Amino acid sequence: MVFVGACSYGILSTIVKLAYWDGYAIEVIAVMQALIGFCCLWIFSLFTKTTTNKVLPLQGKSKWLVIVSGGCIGLTSYVYYLSVKYIPASVAIICLMQFTWMSVLLEWCLFKKRPSQQQLGIITIILLATYLASGLQDSTNIHWKGLSLATLSALMYAGYVVLNARLPQTGGTSITRSMYAMLGSVITLSIITFPGLIAAQCWNLQLFRWVILLAFFGTIIPPLLFAGGIPKIGAGKSAVIMTAELPVAIISACVILHEPIASLQWWGVGLLLASIVYMKTR
């Protein structure tokens, strides 16, 4: 379940790229994905109420904190989708995976949790692997605006991970918490992208082909599978299995989008994946 959920996340960048090629604006895609995801999770929450009587409801401050955290993850997705407009999907996912070491440094800066020498060594290897995997050796083919946006999305995601780990985790089922987080995404994205939503000329039935796919693989399936799978195998093993998102994203970009991946980049991907797995197991 955890593996399939991670693979679902892995194909999002490819779907977004296809939607771009079909002429749809990022503002419309991001907001509609979050809205459909929220509606589906709300329906699921109605059916789970009768079977979760032992779980305390999500109330007051905790509910608002979850909504705010959802706004943060919504912004992360929006910036990540923007980056895919300028750079290959395979490069965008490599940049996004930098959140693994950024979160370590953020904990150091915000909470004085100094990383060990071993962690710093792994971060150095991750940066080297990223350089190889992204194809930065041939910088003429890399759009620096897209690279900057993808790196910003990684930093925002790292901030979300660090802060969310310190939020109170009591009250509400996993589905309920996911629903309120998605509500935060809908509100935040609607405010941020409002001018673009008004100006968009791509409101048609074909739009739902893309946003339903994005909502299904990005905001519906992963939370449900993670809620069922992670408690059975634990957070440590889950964190390792969830790195499957990286190779799946690159393979789908290569097979579906026909993005060229050089042999040196594959070596970089392998080194990056091994480094992330080692960091998470430690």
From TrEMBL:
Organism field: Chitinophaga skermanii
InterPro entries referenced in this protein's UniProt entry, alphabetically: EamA_dom, EmrE-like
GO CC annotations, alphabetized: membrane
Residues covered by the EamA domain: 1-134, 145-278
Protein name from the UniProt record: Threonine/homoserine efflux transporter RhtA
Source organism, top-level taxon: Bacteria
Bilayer-spanning residue ranges: 24-44, 64-81, 87-108, 120-137, 149-167, 179-201, 207-227, 239-258, 264-281
UniProt keyword terms in alphabetical order: Membrane, Transmembrane, Transmembrane helix
SUPFAM superfamilies per UniProt: Multidrug resistance efflux transporter EmrE
Presence of keyword Transmembrane helix: yes
Keyword Transmembrane applies: yes
Lineage: Bacteria, Pseudomonadati, Bacteroidota, Chitinophagia, Chitinophagales
PANTHER family cross-referenced by the UniProt entry: ACYL-MALONYL CONDENSING ENZYME-RELATED (PTHR22911), SOLUTE CARRIER FAMILY 35 MEMBER G2-RELATED (PTHR22911:SF137)
